[in-house]
Specification:
The complex is a heterodimer.
Chain A lengths: L2 E2 L2 H6 L4 H25 L2 E3 L5 E3 L3 H7 L2 H19 L1 H13 L3 H12 L6 H11 L6 H9 L1 H12 L19 H7 L7 H11 L4 H9 L4 H30 L2 H7 L12 H11 L3 H25 L5
Helix pairs in contact in A: 3-16, 4-13, 5-11, 11-13, 13-16, 15-16
Chain B lengths: L2 H6 L7 H25 L4 H6 L8 E8 L6 E7 L2 H6 L11 E8 L7 H41 E2 L3 H13 L6 H10 L6 H25 L3 H9 L4 H12 L1 H17 L2 H6 L8 H11 L4 H21 L1 H14 L1
Helix pairs in contact in B: 2-14, 5-8, 5-11, 5-13, 5-14, 6-8, 8-11, 11-15
The chains are: A mainly alpha, B mainly alpha.
Chain lengths: ~325, ~325
């Protein structure tokens, strides 16, 4: 720990404050000021220029009656559930790699997992967009090739969805009903490099004697996971759970690029962040956009509070 | 680790291969986009439609057709199919009476290197802009955070607790509400449509996380080193240069990689800030590439691949840092 200083020494070391000033100034101007400005402007009718008009709570009243906003919250809740499900492969991958006996192959797989990171995430996103292309895309080709397409068509006939037809390419990103399924499939097999590496680091702390004891007791592989491995990476799992929920709640880059600023056909991919972006930069309603931002912020702050209170992350 | 102990992890040796199969299966799917990007970048649209999955064989087929008035013959060239290469005979297009015959020859011209030239001229300037933004931003950001972390870690100065709280509070503040006022702030500072906007906002945004990680690290450094340096009359700045930076190489490297990756992948802020094509960073450039051109997938994929090249170079040089540092840095964060 940093040592406590006598008054005299403090006076002599006053120059140290110069070390923190640049960071402090930058953070004050580019983080605190915009945040304060967002709160301030959420009470105004403001087009982004010099003219603004105080409207009190009108922006918030409007937000509570805004069906697009509430639908977007519904959509984002569904996406959060999807993303929770998508955590499983990373955990399974980490456990499988950890259980391998040879250190060399453990290291080899870790390197192989890092390789996808060298593709810029935007490029990955566009390659996935290309996979979803109705005519040339990989996804439709795979479905045709494996015969899953005809299965989908017959299921469609059975339930009357009206989505899949013989000889018509599936428009993954152009049919309103398929937007959410597309967002679910996106990123298959859902292995996050950083996630796997975090879990692996957590697993590394499991002592050999724990495994030996389990082996002696004749514990099966799944029970080993449940009773030995899961408890030890629970901290990391919780941490990434929280980060994931907050990230999904405020993220909108994926939807913006994949579906456009209106949230795709029928607005099915509209999330709160995207609606804020849309109101500010497409409709020019900066004041209202600030209000949406504040509402979103309150949601996230509430989640963070619940997290700190009930979900202890032991360091 | 001894073999006996190692055996206790997981199960018996003869069952390990099934895990290898599963892991490899997932890793292959994970690497599939990378593979597609690479092989499609050498194709034009025609050969891509003819053969979407495999790399093109180094053979081309010259097909001759009779024109409608039966006087001239027209020749068409296309890439050979793998089935043709393996059987050694050219396949006849079914039910085309004008088809006269075709011959196959070894030809490296089926690999469209022009895609790469096109990609490079298209994306090269964007890469230059991004390298400028990412390198400047990362270096300045880390330098400032090292100074700041030293302030917090070395002595407990009056007000330092309060200042620390002010930084850590930002960890809770989601950035999402900020983007609209940030845009108008940049407009007032007349930083809109400049690369400096991206650099400065990037530096400010990186401070909190970097400070958090670096403070813990510097506090764990042995106190004797600082005291010895102080005895020798080193100023605080000299202590940072001669003690802190050499001692915290790996953690600085990890933070640098994370910060560089973040800036390399950023597209939301550039999309809002930049208007002029000459200033585009990779993020915006790729978005416009996705929207603007008639899709020549080969050219697009070549451009994507070129966009990844700088990261591939970094990866090759710092692989150990990538793999070890990411896992270590991740726990601390």
């Amino acid at each position: 720990m940093a040592s406590l200083l006598s008054r005299q020494k403090t006076l002599r070391e006053w120059k140290l404050y110069f070390f923190i000033v640049p960071s402090l100034l930058l953070v004050a101007i580019f983080s605190y000021f915009p945040a304060a400005s967002a709160i301030y402007h959420s009470f105004f009718d403001w087009q982004g220029g010099d003219n603004k008009q105080l409207v009190g709570l009108d922006n918030f009243k409007r937000a509570f009656g805004d069906t697009v906003l509430w639908d977007s919250f519904k959509t984002v809740s569904i996406l959060i559930v999807f993303n929770l499900f998508k955590m499983i492969p990373s955990i399974a991958m980490a456990v499988m790699i950890h259980r391998l006996k040879s250190d060399a192959s453990q290291y080899f797989y870790r390197v192989m997992l890092v390789v996808p990171m060298i593709v810029p995430s935007l490029v990955t996103l566009f390659i996935w967009k290309f996979f979803f292309d109705p005519n040339l895309g990989v996804l439709n080709n795979v479905l045709d090739f494996t015969g899953i397409k005809s299965l989908l068509v017959s299921l469609d006939g059975l339930f009357g969805w009206g989505i899949f037809f013989e000889n018509v390419p599936i428009g993954w990103l152009s049919q309103p009903e398929l937007i959410l399924p597309s967002l679910f499939i996106w990123g298959f097999p859902w292995i996050g490099t950083v996630g796997v590496l975090i879990y692996l680091a957590g697993l590394q702390s499991i002592g050999q004697e724990v495994y030996e004891a389990a082996e002696l007791d004749g514990v099966g592989p799944f029970q080993k996971f449940l009773y030995i491995e899961l408890p030890l990476i629970l901290t990391q799992v919780r941490l990434s759970l929280i980060l994931l929920i907050i990230g999904t709640l405020q993220g909108y880059g994926l939807q913006l690029l994949l579906l456009g600023d209106a949230g795709g056909p029928g607005g099915r991919g509209m999330v709160p962040g995207l609606w804020m972006y849309n109101r500010a930069f497409i409709a020019g309603e900066f004041g209202y956009a600030c209000a949406i931002g504040i509402i979103l912020f309150v949601f996230i702050l509430g989640l963070t509070y619940i997290n700190n209170k009930y979900v202890r992350v032991d360091k | 680790m001894s073999a006996v102990l190692k055996d206790a992890v997981g199960s018996h040796k003869q069952r390990d291969w099934s895990k290898h199969v599963v892991i490899l299966f997932f890793i292959i799917i994970e690497l599939f986009p990378f593979y597609m990007m690479m092989q499609v970048s050498f194709k034009d649209n025609a050969s891509f439609i003819q053969n979407p999955w495999l790399p093109t064989a180094p053979f081309s087929v010259k097909e001759s057709y009779q024109t409608a008035d039966s006087i001239e013959t027209v020749t068409k060239e296309r890439a050979a199919r793998w089935s043709e290469v393996l059987t050694g005979s050219v396949a006849k297009p079914a039910g085309d009476p004008a088809y006269l015959g075709g011959e196959m020859r070894f030809d490296l011209g089926v690999y469209k290197l022009t895609n790469w030239g096109f990609g490079l001229t298209l994306i090269g300037p964007y890469i230059a802009n991004t390298v400028f933004v990412a390198v400047t931003g990362t270096v300045v950001s880390l330098f400032l955070s090292i100074l700041g972390a030293y302030f917090f870690a070395r002595y407990k100065m009056p007000l330092s607790g309060l200042l620390w709280g002010a930084f850590m509070l930002l960890m809770l503040l989601p950035g999402v509400a900020n983007i609209v006022p940030l845009f108008t702030l940049l407009k007032e500072l007349s930083l809109l449509n400049t690369l400096w906007a991206l650099i400065i906002v990037g530096i400010a945004g990186g401070q909190v996380f970097n400070l958090f990680v670096l403070r813990n690290f510097i506090e764990d450094l042995p106190k004797d080193l600082f005291e010895a340096a102080e005895m020798d009359g080193a100023s605080h700045f000299q202590q940072i240069i001669n003690v802190v930076i050499p001692m915290s190489g790996p953690i600085i490297g990890t933070l640098a990689i994370l910060s560089f990756l973040g800036k390399w992948n950023d597209f939301l802020l550039p999309l809002i800030v930049l208007r002029d094509k000459e200033l585009f960073t990779l993020g915006v450039g790729l978005i416009y590439l996705d929207g603007e051109y008639v899709k020549q997938w080969g050219q697009i994929m070549a451009a994507y691949f070129i966009a990844s090249l700088p990261l591939i170079v970094i990866f090759l040089f710092c692989m150990r840092l990538f793999v070890r540092g990411l896992s270590a840095g991740a726990i601390k964060g």
